[in-house]
């Protein structure tokens, strides 16, 4: 802008520029709506003023332990009030939150604690045993162990095993409620660290910035058209992409966090009915559980419930089931590296005139870029050119903008590869339709190449979910001496349902081209992550064994 009249005398300073951070959301909620309910947990009710004070106490308490700007504080918590508080209090001390996957094993947890250099660990009693084993591994390796704070949740009914020297409530009560927040010096400062699932090698540590968390928190409001004071049910684990940034979203809207220790159909429906829940998020496997729950659990829900589904491409049959149940569904797509959802299957007004099955088919697409993301495109990974919008040409989904990770902690080469060419490379293969909507055809590693033909495992799974006995399905490549590999279907049946291999194959024959029909069907419980995503790598490994 050299030579422009705007180039001088219009400087950036404290009066006209501050770093964007979600800490602002809770500070405002406490000022504007101090008496509004922020947290529900069993019989517990806390206002936004009370929750804000507890977050300040948490920041004060960990600061007294020597935690400084840029230090890591790990938490091993279910969806309970301390987990909500961790998303603000740790950042208020200038530290970085590392929310650990509560279903990880001790070896992986020990690696994460060591790799993140966590100085404090806040752990719920439910996970004391596995964390004790993880801490023992650190001790055996002569690595520094974090200071442990125990959380003794009254709603936990299992065995209690203290690991630290102080309990969380005592820890907060000893702190100063008048604490000077350590605001980020730069909105690019780290706010959170999330570890990927680590299906090959050690998990990678994905670093989020204050700017990204702030941006995606607001983007959630815009995409869902949220009104003030939503009632949000914590079905999605808060450790997963920081609950898709909804801890910050709910604070921005001064909503209510309805906490849930156990993810099961009965407590979910009970909470929706009792607290008039307006919103929740969940993976397809969780939504399927609700669809197939007994009718008496669903009785009495008269109000509008909105649900966001993501974590895997939902089959059209699942979307049909949610609509029949009366829940309004929004399909989202994203990754840990993108703070959760970046694509939304925006529903058009003209779709209302279509049949339920046609609407479900349209909704099953991953959709279009969220408002506050800069760009999402399907590109040829070799040329980096956009693929034609013909619904057939496959490319890779790539993302750029404020809601992309800073990079992988202590892994510059992996960061460079993931962000090369000015785009984040998702590894998901997709097509673009003439209306601009994208649809995933598969992960690059999940495409099945049989006799030279490419087969989308997602397309085959979509057909399988249309069988009335199928609760969950996953299709992977099985080595074959003639064809190289063929589709193998792993099926988890609904409770009380039955089906044979011949039943499943005959069903697919009416929907799929011959070369796409599974050649093998195996009935078993499917391995899943804590968020309900089916772990296909374990199914593939079963062939090696």
Question: Which key features would you list for this structure?
Answer:
31% helix; 545 residues; nine-stranded mixed sheet; globular; eight-stranded mixed sheet; alpha/beta; single chain
Structure commentary:
With 545 residues, this protein is of the alpha/beta class. The chain contains 18 helices and 26 strands. A nine-stranded mixed β-sheet has the order 2-1-11-10-12-13-14-15-16, sandwiched between helices. An eight-stranded mixed β-sheet has the order 7-6-5-3-4-8-9-19, with helices on both faces. The chain has a four-stranded antiparallel β-sheet with strand order 17-18-20-21. β5, α5 (128-140) and β6 form a beta-alpha-beta unit. It is globular and about 70 Å long.
SS elements, strand count: 26
Give the CA-CA distance, first to last residue: 64 Å
The geometry reads as globular
Roughly what is the average pLDDT, rounded to an integer?
Answer: 92
The rounded Rg comes to 24 Å
Strand content: 15-25%
Estimate the helix proportion, in percent. Answer: 25-40%
Low-confidence stretches: none
Widest β-sheet, arrangement of strands? 2-1-11-10-12-13-14-15-16
How large is the count of helical segments? 18
Q: How would a textbook summarize the main sheet?
A: 9 strands, mixed
**Alpha-beta content class:** alpha/beta
């Amino acid at each position: 802008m050299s030579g422009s009249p705007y180039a001088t005398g219009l400087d950036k300073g404290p009066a006209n520029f501050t770093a964007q951070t979600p800490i602002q959301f809770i500070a405002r909620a406490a000022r504007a709506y101090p008496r509004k309910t922020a947290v529900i947990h069993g019989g517990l009710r806390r206002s936004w003023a009370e929750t804000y004070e507890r977050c300040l106490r948490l920041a004060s308490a960990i600061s007294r332990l020597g935690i400084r700007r840029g230090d890591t504080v790990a938490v091993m918590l279910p969806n309970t009030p301390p987990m909500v508080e961790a998303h603000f209090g740790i950042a208020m001390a200038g530290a970085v939150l590392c929310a650990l996957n509560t279903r990880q094993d001790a070896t992986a947890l020990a690696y994460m604690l060591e790799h993140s250099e966590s100085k404090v660990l806040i752990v719920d009693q439910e996970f004391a045993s596995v964390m004790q084993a993880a801490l023992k591994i650190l001790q055996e390796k002569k690595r520094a162990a974090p200071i442990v704070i125990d959380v003794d949740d009254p709603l936990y009914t299992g065995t209690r095993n203290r690991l630290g020297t102080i309990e969380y409530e005592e820890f907060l009560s000893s702190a100063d409620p008048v604490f000077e927040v350590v605001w980020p010096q730069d909105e690019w400062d780290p706010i959170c660290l999330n570890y990927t699932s680590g299906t090959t090698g050690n998990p990678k540590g994905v670093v989020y910035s204050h700017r990204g968390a702030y941006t995606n928190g607001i983007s959630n409001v815009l995409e869902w058209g949220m009104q003030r004071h939503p009632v949000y049910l914590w079905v999605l684990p808060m450790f997963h992409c920081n609950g898709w940034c909804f801890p910050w979203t709910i604070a921005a809207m001064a909503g209510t966090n309805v906490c849930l220790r156990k993810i099961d159909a009965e407590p979910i429906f009970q909470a929706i009915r009792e607290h008039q829940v307006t919103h929740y998020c969940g993976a397809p496997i969780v939504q399927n559980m609700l669809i197939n729950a007994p009718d008496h659990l669903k009785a009495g829900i008269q109000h509008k419930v909105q649900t966001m589904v993501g974590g895997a491409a939902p089959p059209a049959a699942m979307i049909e089931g949610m609509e029949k149940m009366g829940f309004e569904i929004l399909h989202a797509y994203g990754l840990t590296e993108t703070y959760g959802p970046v694509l939304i299957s925006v529903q058009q007004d003209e779709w209302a005139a279509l049949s339920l099955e046609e609407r479900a088919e349209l909704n099953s697409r991953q959709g279009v870029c969220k408002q506050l993301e800069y760009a999402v495109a399907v590109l040829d990974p070799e040329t980096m050119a956009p693929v034609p919008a013909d619904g057939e040409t496959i490319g890779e989904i790539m993302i750029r903008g404020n809601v992309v990770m800073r990079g992988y902690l202590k892994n510059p080469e992996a960061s460079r590869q993931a962000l090369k060419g000015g785009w984040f490379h998702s590894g998901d293969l997709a097509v673009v339709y003439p209306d601009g909507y994208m649809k995933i055809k598969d992960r690059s590693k999940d495409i099945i190449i049989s006799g030279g033909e490419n087969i989308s495992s997602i397309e085959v799974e979509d057909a399988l979910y249309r069988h009335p006995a199928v609760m969950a399905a996953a299709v992977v490549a099985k080595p074959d001496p003639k064809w190289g590999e063929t589709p193998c279907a792993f099926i988890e049946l609904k409770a009380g349902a039955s089906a044979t291999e011949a039943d499943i194959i005959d069903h697919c024959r009416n929907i799929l081209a011959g070369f796409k029909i599974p050649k093998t069907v195996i009935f078993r419980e499917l391995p899943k992550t804590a968020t309900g995503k089916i772990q296909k790598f374990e199914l593939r490994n079963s062939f090696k064994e």
